[in-house]
User: Fold this.
Amino acid sequence: MSPSTARLCEVWRGPIAESVHFGHVVIAGPDGEVEAAWGDPDATILPRSSAKMIQALPLVASGAADARGLGPEQLALACASHQGAPLHVAKVAEWLAAEGFDEAEMRCGPEPSRDKNLRFEMIRDGKSPSQLHNNCSGKHAGFLTLAAQLGGGAEYVEPEHPVQIAARDAFEVVTDRESPGFGIDGCSAPNFATTMSAMARAMSWFATAHRREDTLSRAGVRLREAMMAHPLLVAGEGRACTLLMQAAKEPVALKTGAEGFFIAILPERGQGIAIKAQDGATRAAECAIAAVLVRMGVLDADHRDVARFLSPQITNRRGIVTGSIKPAVTLLG
Amino acid sequence: MSPSTARLCEVWRGPIAESVHFGHVVIAGPDGEVEAAWGDPDATILPRSSAKMIQALPLVASGAADARGLGPEQLALACASHQGAPLHVAKVAEWLAAEGFDEAEMRCGPEPSRDKNLRFEMIRDGKSPSQLHNNCSGKHAGFLTLAAQLGGGAEYVEPEHPVQIAARDAFEVVTDRESPGFGIDGCSAPNFATTMSAMARAMSWFATAHRREDTLSRAGVRLREAMMAHPLLVAGEGRACTLLMQAAKEPVALKTGAEGFFIAILPERGQGIAIKAQDGATRAAECAIAAVLVRMGVLDADHRDVARFLSPQITNRRGIVTGSIKPAVTLLG
Assistant:
């Protein structure tokens, strides 16, 4: 963590700014270099789920995706932090069945569905959440598919497993540096650390991948296109990634990460964006990504689905509007 | 909000400090003056539910509590942000029934129980949460009781209602200053703003109340004693206020507030503590209050229920420990 941060947003209740969020924002250009930054571009961070499209590169680049006949829906799911809604659960289940995998082979662990209707239904029916409901189950279906190709045994989340070695190698290529270390993610896979500017660089790598012919870049194109073609699979109803991708005025791949991370891949501009709320708050990262994309003309501030994240109203238990979150003026422009 | 904050805690995942929280901590002495501060003692804040014992002062000081035969359990509930567990719901229901109030007269709004068993049971039975389940229902039972005494109509959360005028007056007495404004709380009652040092002063007011003979001070003694006698009512199972009050080596009244607030009242020392996590994070305020109380010798760092908030482990979906939260060394001492 770095002492030098930028204001991202304020949380207002009536006339009082009761809380405030700080963090880092970096925009990288087509050459991978920093074009704009707020906060500290050299801050070391864990990108968490915002790195999923990087972790999915070996699945495609190895030929495993094509050997198994995976299409854009599976690639989108491999990059997803999905809601665990019936749609997501069914498609991951189909994927596993098509490849002959059993849910028991997954290593992400069970997690309740984030889809309220399904979650309540399962409570009423006394059904326990399965690993399919885990928001990372698409990523793990991808890991299983790759593991079947590479070999290395059943424990595909172990850092020394060929699947994770491949993920780390891809991570170091697209960030153009060695990763200083990793943490273990909520879903048990390694999550590699890097700097803010290196993560923005990685996103610009995806944004310019169509300009290159190498296998890894072609895999990058397919993954980002899959995300943009299937925003509902990447996240789900009501989710920032989904709604903002759908509201965007140009193609953009968006991906949230736990502990206040957010990325954007802008293929028409060849730019990549990385955002980290220093304190880990999702509300701040969502506000900031919306603000930066509005600033850049990718989103309209007036669009209802944009306003929802850019300047959400806070309502209380009687539905009274008690406050709102406002993006920092320095960010919004 | 103020630019000058102090580090409260870091969130570690493996070898990486992935997030960090900053905020303000103020300790006031028996004379109400600042004895120690980290961050900005002049920062303007909303204390949220940490002010509940202040808001409950008129209930006692007016004579309403005695006129209605309220005991320490009701006074504890009036200061509570309870779990909405069967215990809390039953006792608030009893209170309302004893006074002839109907749940429909409450103005806090419904909220699901925070008690997992009860919440699941209600989902299974298709039962909607009621206002009794709202964590503020004890506070609102207190407001109803006071409103019956003071008159002023049914809308007791309106800022100009005698109940809220009395609450504001009490707030300004114990903070020893005029409140610059208020926000509307999640439960629809006004929440008055003040500074960090004034809130700490207010807590030291409660801590020294037994040394004074005036009606308001005697009310303060009764409220803080009720909180300390009934920690389970003030919050609930597994909650920081409850567990830390129970683990403390001397009498201390603790109260959490939304958006990362926490207070402590220390009658043996005549001291009051106020803590605000700048970004609003409860995990940071809990870590910080535990750290400060360990520093002061009120809590033992080795006590299991203290470690749980001072340095909680972060586990993932497969129960693997992936990281932890560590208090700032400057705070812990």
In short: Chain A has 15 helices and twelve strands. Chain A has one domain: 6-332. The first strand of chain A starts at residue 6 and ends at 13.
